[in-house]
Amino acid sequence: MQRWIIGIVCAFVLATGASAATGGMTLEQVAQTRAVTQAQLSPDGGSVAYLLSVPRTLGVDPDGPARTELHVVDGAGTTRGFITGKVDIASPRWLPDGRSIAYLAKREGDETRRLYTIPLQGGESTVAAQLRADISAFDLSPDGRQVAVLAVQRESDARKALRDKGFSQKVYEEDWRPVELWIADIGGTGEPRRIEIDGSVQSVRWSPAGDRLAVVVTPRQLTDDTMVDARVRMLSVQGRELGRVDNPGKLGEMAWSPDGAHLAIVSAADENDPREGRLTVVGRDGGTPRDLLPGLEGHVWNVAWRDTSTLVFLSQEGVHSRLAEIGVDGSGQRTLLAPEGAVHMGLSVAPGGAAALVGSTPAHPSEVFLYTPGAGEARRLTDSNPWLKDVRLARQEIVRYTARDGLELEGLLVHPLERRGNARVPLILVVHGGPEAHYSNAWLNSYAQPAQVAAARGFASFFPNYRSSTGRGVAFSKLGHGRPGMEEFDDLVDGVDHLIETGLVDRDKVGITGGSYGGYASAWGATYYSERFAASVMFVGISDQASLVTTGDIPREQYLVHMRSWPWENPEMYRQTSPISHAQKSRTPTLILHGEADPRVPVMQSYMLYRYLQLAGQAPVRLVLYPGEGHGNTRGASRYDYSLRLMQWMEHYLTGRGGEPPAYEIDYALPAQATPSAR
C-alpha cells in the first residue's frame, strides 16, 4: 500500500512539475500540441486551405482522436477558421473557380459522411454529393460540375437485419466489401452513377482533359492487397477501360499534367522495393512508367505539375527534404528549395509555380509554408502553437557515424536542456518503425517520442536512421532483406557507442524505445542486446517472426520486402531473429504496451514476449494493453497514458532507484490540463 502511494506522488510530479522546473516542455503540452496536416493552394495562389489537428482537452472533452478543423490563410498570414470546434473535416479541395472549398464531413444529423462545399467569401456549407455509405475520397472534374467519389459497398439490408439479430460473425479475409467508384453531379438531385470495376478502388484522379480517370485498383480490400497489388487503370468517365499502367509494387501519389497528356506516379522500383519513392511518368493511355530520377538517393513523397512539361516534386533526402522541378522528358532538373531548413511533407502547386507546403522544424510542429517562384525560400504562414515561444527547447543536431562494417549512417540527437559541465547524461534511443521510414531534422515530439520533455528532465534522445531506412535510395532500403534485425540493430548499438565515445552518454544509463519495427528493436535490445540497455519500452512490437507472418495482415508484403523467405523455408533465420529466442539473456526491465485491436502486429506478440520474460524471471516486466486501439494509439487518453508510462519507466530505471517496477496506477493530474501552457 505504501509503495502504491509513493508511486502516485511520483506520477503527479512527473505529470506536472519535472519539466516545468527547468522551463522545458511538459507532457501536458505535448498532449495539447496542434499541427497542420494538409494544405491546398487556391488556383490563383492567393490563399491556402488547410486542416488543423486539434487534440481534445484531457479530462474535459469526451475522449477520442484529435478534432480536425478547416482554416484558410492568405499570403500575408491572416488566418480564418472556416469550420472549427467539434468537427472532423477531411480532404479539402478548391473548386476550379477558386470561389469555394469542397470537403468531406459527417455533420450533425448526417447518417453518412458527405461531400460539402463552402464559399470562400462567406456563407453556409451545402451538400455537394452523398451516398448511402460514407464517402471516403473524391476528385473533382476539371469544370467543377461533377465529382468522382469512393465509398465502401453498402451492407445489404438483409445482412444488416441479421447482424441486428446477433448474427455478427466475421469470416476472415472473405467477407470484405469492395470500395466502389461513383460519379455524381455537384449539388445535383439525380442519383449518382456507379462505375463497374472488377476489384476494389483505392484512389481516383480526374484528367484535366475531362475525358478519363486514373484509378488505383486492388483485387480485394485487404491490407496486403493494398500494399503490394495496387495497379493503375485508365478509365473513361463511362467506365470503359482505356489502358493500364505496368507499375510494380507499392504506389504513392498520382498527378495529371494540366493538359491530361501525362500522369506522374510515385512508384516502387520493383516488387521488392520496401517503399514507393521513384518519380515516374506514363502517357494518357498508360503503359510502362519512365523513371525520371534513376539512381536518386532519396525518396519522392509528393508530386505536382507547374505546367504541361514541368513536374514539381518533394523528395526526402537524408534527414532533409528538397523541393525541385524536372522536365517531363527527364531533363532540366532544378532545385527550388535546398535540402536545409524546414522539412516539408506535403505539396500543392498552383498554375505559375507557387506552392503550398506543410513543414516543420526542430522548433515547431507542422505549419503552412508558401513558396513563391524565385524566392529561394518558403515563408511560414501559420503559428498554430503561439505558446511555444515561451518554452525553452533543447538543441537538436545531425549526427553522422560509421557502423562496424564501414557503412556511413546518420541520425538526430536532442541534447539535454541542461548539462552539468562535461557530466555524462542518460540516453533514450528512439527507433523508427517500418523499417521503411526515417527521421528528418524536424519536430521530433509526439506522445510516443517526447524528446523535448526528456531533454527538460536531463536526458539526451537519439533518433538513428539505420540501414533499411528510407531517404537514402532503393539500395540502402534493401540492405536488411532476409536479415531482419541483424545488422540493422547493430547499427543502433554502434550509434550509442559513438555518443559514448564523444563523452556525452553514460554507458550504464541507456534506454531503448520504439513502435512497430521500432518495438521489435526495443524487444531485441531487451533480449539479444540486453547487456547494453538498462531499460526498454516496446510498443506494438514484434517478438516472434514466424507467428507474425502467419497471423498479421500483411504476410506477402513482409515476404517481398523484408523476409524474402517463408518460415518453413528458413526456420532457423526466423528463430534467430525473434526476440523470444533470446529471452533467457534478458536482464533489462521491460515495459510492453499494445493496442488490443492491432491487426498489423497482433497483440499476441506482446503476450508472448511478456510471458517469456516473466518465466525467465531475470528482470522486471510489465504489459499494458489499450482496448480498442490498433497499431498505434489514436485517442487522447490512451496517448497521454502512454507518454506518462514511457517517461516513468525511463526515469525509474535510468535515473531513479530502479529495482521493482513503479506502481502501475497513474495519477493523470487532469485539472492541470486546462491550457497547453499549464505548468
Fold blueprint:
Elements lengths: L1 H15 L10 H5 L3 E7 L5 E8 L12 E8 L4 E5 L6 E5 L5 E6 L8 E6 L6 E4 L5 E6 L5 E7 L4 H8 L14 E7 L7 E3 L4 E7 L5 E7 L4 H6 L2 E6 L4 E5 L5 E6 L5 E6 L10 E6 L2 E6 L7 E9 L2 E8 L2 E8 L6 E4 L5 E7 L5 E7 L2 E8 L6 E3 L15 E7 L5 E7 L10 E7 L19 H6 L3 E6 L8 H4 L8 H16 L3 E11 L1 H10 L8 E5 L5 H7 L3 H9 L7 H6 L13 E6 L8 H13 L4 E6 L9 H20 L24
Parallel strand pairs: 16-20, 31-32, 31-33, 33-34, 34-35, 35-36
Antiparallel strand pairs: 1-2, 2-3, 3-4, 5-6, 6-7, 7-8, 9-10, 10-11, 11-12, 13-14, 14-15, 15-16, 17-18, 18-19, 19-20, 21-22, 22-23, 23-24, 25-26, 26-27, 27-28, 29-30, 30-32
Task: Explain what you see.
With 679 residues, the protein is α+β, with helices and mostly antiparallel strands. It has a domain at 2-28 and 390-661: Rossmann fold. Helix content is 18%, strand content 34%. The protein has 13 helices and 36 strands. Strands 13-14-15-16-20-19-18-17 form an eight-stranded mixed β-sheet.
